[in-house]
């Protein structure tokens, strides 16, 4: 209803005006004679278009013709509302309930609506009034979700993307009954995905993971989405307009392709473990890291939620300060495949033990030249942490050429020392984490379409 250009198409809009007409006809019948109904007119009008003998645009009749008794004489009449009584405590519709305090039939309140003061009555439709709100008992909630999930089949090959469901205040909806129906336009297969429960960084509150058909090279997958909140109410899609940099009402369709030119600007991945980090730049210092709102979100509200409110929901999400004893950071080690090297990380002060591992064991599964090492957590040490990284073979130091890559991209020879600090301006290596689940994507900027993702080089590189 809040989209003005389409609100007259809403059935509720028609019913609203029909009810107003009913109230007006009641006034005419109770307060005017038959002759007065066709001739009495307001003496003060808003403008000339509201005159008694003026054309009723865009029709060819005059305003006075709308007062004719002929409408209710020959064409229709308004049925009076039947209220309940002590003798018959029922109402004519399941959308009414009998208020036994006044013996009147009243409209029921929808699931999730305000029922303050009516606890213990039947005011709630398909729900019960508890603490001023119409809610569904946990047992019924579980059965409702099971009924919705019945027959739900996952796409055989899929990728993951993110969206967010927001309420009237621009806050994320954290309810496991909020859901999205995804329909593959090619096969007409549907899948329902639910909010997964309580979110944790880097997830934005209200995050829902979209299971989408996996795109093939040279082929595009097209899906339609229909989102509903925990009360079953329709949610309006809003998409980021890259020209105006604002969220606007849009059609809930996504094109998924490996080719960014024909794909919606959506961040997606085939990896279940990596999907958490979509729309996040992991090449930044932890203090500078925050998620980006997905390209398409859903607003579950009859009130206007502005683009600024949508963006704010993501901007306030920040990485929590880690209290773990150690963090992981990356070192690039270029070596012969047959070499059996170890890597060692030695803190300069007595703030933690020496870390040592075989390079083969510590290397990334995706890039064997990237090695993950451990150091004391700089968040726990106000002055920061300085460590020396060495490459060893049979407990002897290997003479390697060591290069350091600065934040501006320049590279120079260095001695293998690296400073980690909670202050980004004092940290030589920005990219570190205490979360082992993020290691496969550490250093990647995963915002936007995957073809635009970029990887940041580690501060230290060893050429052995």
Automatic annotation (TrEMBL):
Domain annotation Tyrosinase copper-binding: ranges:
10-21
Q: What is this protein called?
A: Tyrosinase_Cu-bd domain-containing protein
Instruction: Give the molecular function GO annotations.
Output: metal ion binding; oxidoreductase activity
Q: Which SUPFAM superfamilies match?
A: Di-copper centre-containing domain
**What keywords tag this UniProt record?**
Metal-binding
Specify the taxonomic lineage.
Eukaryota, Metazoa, Ecdysozoa, Nematoda, Chromadorea
* Annotated Pfam families: Tyrosinase (PF00264)
Q: Which PANTHER family match?
A: TYROSINASE COPPER-BINDING DOMAIN-CONTAINING PROTEIN (PTHR11474:SF122), TYROSINASE FAMILY MEMBER (PTHR11474)
Superkingdom of origin organism: Eukaryota
Keyword DNA repair belongs to the record: no
């Amino acid at each position: 209803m809040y989209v003005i250009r389409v609100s007259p198409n809403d059935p509720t809009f028609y019913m609203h005006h029909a009810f107003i007409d009913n109230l007006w006809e009641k006034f005419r019948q109770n307060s005017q004679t038959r002759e007065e109904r066709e001739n009495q007119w307001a003496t003060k009008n808003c403008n000339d278009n509201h005159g008694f003998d003026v054309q009723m645009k865009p029709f060819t009749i005059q305003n006075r013709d709308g007062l004719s008794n002929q409408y209710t004489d020959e064409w229709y009449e308004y049925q009076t509302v039947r209220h309940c009584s002590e003798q018959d405590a029922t109402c004519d519709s399941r959308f009414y309930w009998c208020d036994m305090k006044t013996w009147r039939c009243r409209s029921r309140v929808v699931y999730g609506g305000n029922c303050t003061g009516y606890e213990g009555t039947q005011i709630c439709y398909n729900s019960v009034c508890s603490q001023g709100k119409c809610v569904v008992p946990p047992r019924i909630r579980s059965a409702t979700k099971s009924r919705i999930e019945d027959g739900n089949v996952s796409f055989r090959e899929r990728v993951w993307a993110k969206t967010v469901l927001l309420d009237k205040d621009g806050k994320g909806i954290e309810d496991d009954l909020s859901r999205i129906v995804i329909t593959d336009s090619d096969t007409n297969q549907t899948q329902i995905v639910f909010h997964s429960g309580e979110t944790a960084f880097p997830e934005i509150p209200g995050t829902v993971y979209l299971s989408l058909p996996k795109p093939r090279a040279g082929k595009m997958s097209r899906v339609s989405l229909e989102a509903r909140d925990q009360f079953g109410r329709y949610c309006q899609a809003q998409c980021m307009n890259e020209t105006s940099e604002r969220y606007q009402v849009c059609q809930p369709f996504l094109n998924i392709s490996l080719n960014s030119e024909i794909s919606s600007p959506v961040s997606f991945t085939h990896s279940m473990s990596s999907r958490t980090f979509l729309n996040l730049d992991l090449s930044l210092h932890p203090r500078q890291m925050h998620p980006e709102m997905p390209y398409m979100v859903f607003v579950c509200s009859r009130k206007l939620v502005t683009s600024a409110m949508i963006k704010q929901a993501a901007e306030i999400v920040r990485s929590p300060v880690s209290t773990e004893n150690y963090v992981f950071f990356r070192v690039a080690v270029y070596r012969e495949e047959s070499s059996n090297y170890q890597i060692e990380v030695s803190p300069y002060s007595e703030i933690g033990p020496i870390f040592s591992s075989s390079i083969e064991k510590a290397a990334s599964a995706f890039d064997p030249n990237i090695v993950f090492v451990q150091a004391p957590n700089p968040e726990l040490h106000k002055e920061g942490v300085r460590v020396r990284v060495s490459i060893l073979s049979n407990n002897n130091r290997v003479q390697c050429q060591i290069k350091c890559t600065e934040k501006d991209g320049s590279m120079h020879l260095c001695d293998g020392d690296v400073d980690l600090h909670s202050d980004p301006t004092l940290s030589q290596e920005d990219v570190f984490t205490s979360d082992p689940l993020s290691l496969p994507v550490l250093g990647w900027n995963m915002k936007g379409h995957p073809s635009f993702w970029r990887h940041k080089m580690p501060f230290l590189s060893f050429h052995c």
